[in-house]
Amino acid sequence: MNSVSRRSFLKKAALVSAAGSLVLQGCGAARRATATASTRSQVIGANGDIRLAVIGFHGRGADHIREFGELPGVRVVALCDADRDVLNAGVRKCEERNEKVEAYTDVRKLLENPNIDAVSVATPNHWHSLMTVWACQAGKDVYVEKPVSHNVWEGRKAVEAARKYGRIVQAGTQNRSDPGLREAIAWLKEGHLGRILLARGLCYKRRKSIGKVAGPTPIPSSVDYDLWTGPAELLPLMRKELHYDWHWVWNTGSGDIGNQGIHEMDIARWATGAKALAPRVMSVGGRFGYDDDGETANTQFVYYDYPDIPILFEVRGLPMKPGVDEVSHYKGIRTGNVIHCEHGYYATGWAYDQDGKKIRDFPLDGGAGHTKNFIDAVRSRKRESLNADILEGHLSSALCHMGNVSHRLGTRRPPEEIRERLEANSAMLEAFERFQEHLAVNGVDLSKDRAAHGPWLEMDPAAEKFTGSDALVANALISRNYRRPFVVPEKV
């Protein structure tokens, strides 16, 4: 890897600091990447086929292999995973279908391959933005899973890279391609239920304890841990499972608000029409019900104080009561959205009047055509035809990160004090009361196991940086110290 650029910046933070340095960019020389980007947009693979590589397929990426492989004129020609067992199993499955694929453990080697037109990225979250930037520099179009970033700053860099190199970059928020949901959002915006007052996102999804270890656990022998860790901090594995449970530690994941919840966050923002980050955010939450190696909140609500239509997001990982796996619901919705309006509300698939009577059905398909929408845009080179352009993915992902920053800077307070601080906001107070009731049913006494009450954080939506009294510590969490050579560049 011989592409280099200088990334010089100084974090104004009490927690971390980093000086810029000469770093590897990993995709060939910058001038070669630029030339490749300009020429590849005019040439799609042999015989008109789009040649696609899937990067990371221990989970969602397996669906990518199937979904893209079923589209006419698309060939999955390469697979990449830092776990050799996962990689070899994927190659074998392709061979069983008489499909020839090249195998890589290092994404940088894959991106040097001129016979790949596009990539899908379904790795752990901490890799999403860097792989998107590198792929754009290498002249590849990108389908990147949600959230598109691990922090606010790098998500914007992914947008900048897509624009600079003229790439088609689709975010994996597939609900944007659901015809029924698109119809529902348009119907709400036409005012059939009156003015939209509040958009609520719900992620009520059972999450059990991931267990607790007494010390570092062995890295699976099949995993190249340096490549798996990439831009994150290279730490001992302090949990039982490497795979999937990375969601619940800050070094690699963003909790359920950034895992499942990003889908509902995106729909909430879509419904409100918000085109920038919220000017203020506050979180209340914690990890309750068990003591394990997870760090992220499993019960949380976050308020995004948009002046026109606020967004309220709720996470619950505990059951509706002990001894069952079923989770509670809000107006019949467990994981989805409730859009509150003057004369009724929309609740994932149905419109209701104020008395809760169904008045219109919007059948949903979950966005089954999302991969096709990406491929169609790759062929046409019309970015505006994407249903979930990288900018949309960035904004919705960044909202999740904003909520987590408030949570991480929170102070544990008794419930009476939290209630007093929320009493001026009826929506937040109501959410807190249900939050407390839910935890009490699960045996959690907030007077003893206190919730973290995050500060009101002020955001400059144009600069995408925190301002105000907590800016110093908040902006320390808006990016990260990248580990060379896996560095998201200041200038893409």
Task: List descriptors.
492 residues, disordered N terminus, alpha/beta, 2 domains, Rossmann fold, twelve-stranded mixed sheet, six-stranded parallel sheet
Give a brief description:
By secondary structure, the chain is α/β, with parallel strands linked by helices. The chain has helices at residues 30-40, 60-69, 84-96, 107-111, 128-137, 152-164, 179-189, 225-229, 255-258, 261-272, 370-380, 390-408, 415-422, 426-441, 471-475, and strands spanning 4-7, 21-24, 50-55, 74-80, 102-104, 118-121, 141-144, 169-171, 196-204, 280-286, 299-304, 311-316, 335-341, 344-347, 350-353, 358-361, 411-413, 451-453, 457-460, 465-467.
Question: How does CATH name the architecture of the largest domain?
Answer: 2-Layer Sandwich
Strand content: 15-25%
Output the number of helix runs. 15
Overall, the morphology is: globular
| CATH class identity of the largest domain | Alpha Beta
